[in-house]
């Protein structure tokens, strides 16, 4: 049977969830609540039920199984805790909390009430991420040495709550949370080193981009970069492995692979590059490489809710686990500490 979901916060993302819930095979949209009347009117205009009595009315509605929290980041905590304590299952938008301490409160409320609680880390369904993950899992280009994940825009940071620190603005919290979560899935090892540079090109109050370096226990490295002042973007993913390199130019493109078939070349002829000659940087003999593309995997973000509903029914383990979310929050806290102190941190995360 479908689960009934009520949405708190009917802005951009709340409306996205509402339209997905209406198409879902596992959810039924019970209604929405937003503190702004203009957003309540927008929902009513689409025939969506509005809870005029606010969160209290949602929590008192016995037909509601799940509360989805899609408000700005600073008001997630109370909505999530109150909903769990009222006996609702909860999905919260990312970043779930502004600190690990806030998140621990939420997990405690979930444990004490026995309700299911997860976070909408929907970018685990991104096909570029899934493509890179499938290459790592297949081992076709060997062990990972380094992964770079970049997202570059060119409009600065949006001028809404995202540009205010107390509301949980800034790009570490907005996009970093997705890319760090993906990276920890790709390299499932302890992090020993965090170094982060925060950018303030268009905004003094919050970071409008950042450059993060992670070193893992085995020596694998990762770079996560988000920029909002990049008029030419770097590739979405670049991965060096022991037996090849993988590259995804952008969200729409297939993954290109250059797989090493032989390390040694015969004679390398120096090439003239710019104002000098080089043998080290001369192109490889193409006979030592195999070039190919891999098809983009398929994915269906409805699987997020299918999994959550099955987890509520005790049929499946939750895909987005609380301990994984907590680790991402720890990394983000380390990003701020490193960025503000201009220091590389030795950690054990
Ligand atoms: P938004 O500003 O468009 O919408 C937020 C809405 O919440 C507004 O309409 C506001 O009036 C309402 N609101 C504020 N306080 C409230 C309260 N106490 N009770 C009820 N309503 C309240 O912001 P958005 O872009 O929709 O972002 C909302 C959340 O979704 C954020 O946490 C954001 O990070 C997240 N988000 C996630 C994704 C994703 O891909 N997972 C994408 C965008 C946004």
Q: Can you walk through the features of this model?
A:
The chain is of the alpha/beta class and 349 residues long. The protein folds into 2 domains: 3-120, Rossmann fold (3-Layer(aba) Sandwich); 124-300 and 330-346, Dihydrodipicolinate Reductase, domain 2 (2-Layer Sandwich). Helices cover 32% and strands 25% of the residues. It is built from 9 helices and 16 strands. The protein has helices at 12-23, 37-45, 54-60, 76-85, 100-113, 127-138, 171-186, 302-312, 322-341, and strands spanning 3-8, 27-33, 66-69, 89-92, 117-119, 144-152, 191-199, 209-216, 221-227, 237-241, 244-248, 255-260, 271-273, 276-278, 289-294, 345-346. A 9-stranded mixed beta sheet has the order 15-12-11-10-6-9-8-7-16. Strands 2-1-3-4-5 form a 5-stranded parallel beta sheet, with helices on both faces. The protein has a two-stranded antiparallel sheet with strand order 13-14. Helix 4 (76-85) packs parallel to helix 5. The longest helix is centred in the last third of the chain and has 20 residues, at 322-341. It is elongated, with a radius of gyration of 23 Å. The two termini are 40 Å apart. The mean pLDDT is 97. The site of nicotinamide-adenine-dinucleotide has 24 residues, from helix 1.
């Amino acid at each position: 049977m479908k689960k009934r979901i009520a949405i708190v916060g009917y802005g951009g993302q709340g409306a996205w969830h509402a339209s997905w819930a209406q198409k879902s095979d596992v959810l039924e949209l019970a209604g929405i609540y937003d503190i702004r009347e203009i957003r309540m009117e927008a929902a009513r205009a689409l025939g969506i039920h509005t809870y005029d009595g606010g969160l209290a009315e949602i929590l008192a509605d016995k037909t509601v199984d799940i509360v989805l929290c899609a408000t700005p980041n600073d008001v997630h905590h109370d909505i999530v805790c109150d909903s769990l304590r009222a006996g609702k299952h909860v999905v919260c938008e990312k970043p779930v909390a502004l600190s690990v301490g806030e998140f621990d409160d939420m997990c405690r409320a979930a444990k004490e009430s026995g309700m299911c609680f997860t976070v909408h880390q929907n970018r685990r369904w991104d096909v570029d991420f899934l493509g890179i993950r499938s290459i790592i899992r297949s081992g076709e280009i060997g062990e990972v040495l380094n992964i770079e994940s970049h997202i570059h825009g060119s409009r600065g940071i949006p001028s809404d709550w995202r540009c205010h620190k107390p509301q949980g603005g800034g790009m570490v919290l907005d996009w970093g949370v997705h890319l760090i979560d993906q990276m920890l899935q790709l390299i499932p090892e302890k992090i020993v080193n965090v170094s982060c540079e925060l950018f303030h090109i268009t905004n003094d109050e919050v970071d409008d981009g950042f450059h993060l370096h992670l070193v893992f226990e085995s020596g694998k490295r990762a770079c996560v970069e988000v920029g909002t002042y990049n008029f030419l973007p770097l590739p979405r993913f670049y991965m060096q492995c022991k037996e090849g390199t993988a590259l995804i130019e952008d969200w729409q493109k297939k993954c290109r692979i250059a797989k090493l078939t032989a390390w040694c070349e015969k004679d390398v002829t120096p090439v003239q590059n710019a104002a000098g000659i080089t043998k080290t940087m001369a192109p490889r003999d193409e006979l030592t490489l195999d070039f190919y593309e891999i098809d983009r995997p398929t994915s269906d973000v409805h699987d997020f809710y299918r999994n959550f509903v099955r987890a509520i029914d005790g049929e499946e383990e939750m895909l987005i686990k609380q301990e994984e979310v907590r680790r991402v929050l720890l990394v983000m806290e380390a990003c701020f500490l490193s960025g503000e102190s201009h220091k590389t941190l030795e950690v054990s995360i």
